[in-house]
């Protein structure tokens, strides 16, 4: 748990955040009293009547952030009640208003893909944590696992802490210059609409990864794929 808390603090939490001391939990406020944040946590919820489009929307955004803006790979978590969260780590805190401007700009760049910008800065689940009402868990997952969780309501059991650390320890934060350049580009009145990038490049999310692909990548990172029974259902 110590290593996990270190990674969460390194990537997402501010020193004066209650979560920085207490660790994962079902309700985490990622915004400081001064109105700044180091994490942009974007929810992708399943809409009634659709299949895995919420996962495909997440892939479009995650791949586009890397291909179009040069951002480092984000983290992905599955929510305890279903759906996904895309986690962007900022090296330096920004006003939550700028984080919302950024997501609103992405929404103009990739229409019908992102949630409303005012969802940014609201308290969120900080994985790994259980939902006391349902007994399911929110957890960070390997990006290639996402399609396998499209119809799931979280994990049925607590994920191994070592596996959660392994999903985070290789991630990097978005540099201040990268974020400010992206925000300026998105604020431009004539920002072009970009086509979704292909998902096959190294480091990008894999919408169509097979179970064997996922297990091979996990083994390469020294992670025992204890979720295999879930993926194979």
Automatic annotation (TrEMBL):
Name the source organism. Answer: Telluria mixta
Q: Protein name, please? A: Uncharacterized protein
């Amino acid at each position: 748990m110590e290593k996990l808390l270190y990674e969460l603090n390194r990537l997402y939490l501010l020193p004066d955040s209650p979560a920085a001391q207490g660790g994962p939990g079902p309700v985490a406020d990622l915004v400081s009293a001064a109105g700044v944040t180091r994490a942009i946590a974007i929810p992708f919820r399943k809409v009634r009547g659709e299949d895995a489009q919420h996962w495909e929307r997440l892939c479009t955004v995650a791949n586009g952030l890397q291909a179009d803006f040069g951002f480092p790979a984000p983290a992905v978590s599955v929510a305890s009640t279903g759906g996904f969260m895309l986690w962007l780590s900022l090296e330096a805190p920004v006003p939550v208003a700028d984080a919302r401007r950024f997501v609103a700009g992405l929404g103009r760049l990739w229409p019908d893909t992102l949630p409303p910008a005012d969802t940014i800065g609201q308290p969120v689940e900080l994985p790994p944590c259980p939902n006391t009402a349902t007994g399911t868990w929110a957890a960070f997952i390997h990006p290639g696992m996402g399609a396998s969780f499209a119809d799931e309501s979280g994990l049925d059991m607590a994920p191994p802490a070592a596996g959660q650390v392994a999903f985070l320890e290789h991630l990097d934060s978005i540099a201040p210059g990268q974020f400010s350049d992206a925000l300026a580009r998105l604020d431009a009145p004539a920002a072009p609409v970009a086509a979704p990038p292909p998902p096959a490049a190294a480091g990008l999310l894999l919408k169509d990864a097979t179970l064997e692909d996922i297990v091979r990548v996990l083994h390469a990172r020294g992670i025992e794929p204890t979720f295999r029974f879930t993926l194979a259902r």
